[in-house]
Design goal:
The protein is 47% helix and 16% strand. It is built from six helices and five strands; from the N terminus they run αβαββαααββα.
C-alpha cells in the first residue's frame, strides 16, 4: 500500500499550518480547534519549515511553566522535518516513524506538501487492509 492510497482514503481536509512568529498559545489553540496533534510550521503553506506537536508544547510547559505559551513556535518546533513521498510504501513510512519516534510526517510531492500522514492514519489503513484480506479468505473458504 502506498501513502497516496492512505491519503485518498482518509477524510481530506486542508493541511493545517502556522507561520513562524506565532506563539505556542496560538498553536495550542489551533491544535485544539482542529482536533489534531501536530501542526506544520510553514511561512508559505507549502514548505515545511518545522513541525510542532502537542508533546513539544507540554514539555515546554513542564520545564518553564505558563510563560512558555508566549514563546514563538520557531523556538520550540522541530526544524529538521522528515517527510515522505506519496509513492513510498506505508511500511517504509511506518519504519521511518518508528525509528524516529514521531507520530506525524508531512507528505511532499513536487516540492510542496500535499498532506500529513499520522501514525493513526497508518494503523487504520493497515487494519482496513487486514480486514479486507480476512474477508477475502473467508469467501475463498466458503467457496464463493
Amino acid at each position: 500500500m502506498k501513502i497516496r492510497d492512505v491519503l485518498k482514503a482518509k477524510a481530506q481536509r486542508a493541511l493545517v499550518t502556522l507561520p513562524q512568529g506565532e506563539t505556542l498559545r496560538a498553536a495550542a489553540e489551533r491544535l485544539s480547534q482542529e482536533r489534531i496533534g501536530t501542526v506544520v510550521i510553514s511561512n508559505d503553506g507549502t514548505q515545511a519549515d518545522g513541525i510542532l506537536s502537542e508533546r513539544d508544547i507540554v514539555r515546554r510547559l513542564a520545564s518553564e511553566g505558563a510563560g512558555a505559551l508566549e514563546r514563538k513556535v520557531e523556538e520550540v518546533m522541530t526544524r529538521n522535518v522528515i517527510t515522505c513521498d506519496p509513492d513510498e510504501t506505508l511500511d517504509a513510512a511506518l519504519a521511518t516513524m518508528t525509528d524516529g519516534r514521531f507520530r506525524h510526517m508531512p507528505v511532499v510531492e513536487g516540492g510542496g506538501m500535499i498532506g500529513i500522514l499520522s501514525l493513526g492514519d497508518a494503523v487504520k489503513a493497515r487494519l482496513d487492509e487486514v480486514a479486507y484480506e480476512r474477508d477475502a479468505m473467508e469467501e475463498m473458504i466458503k467457496g464463493h
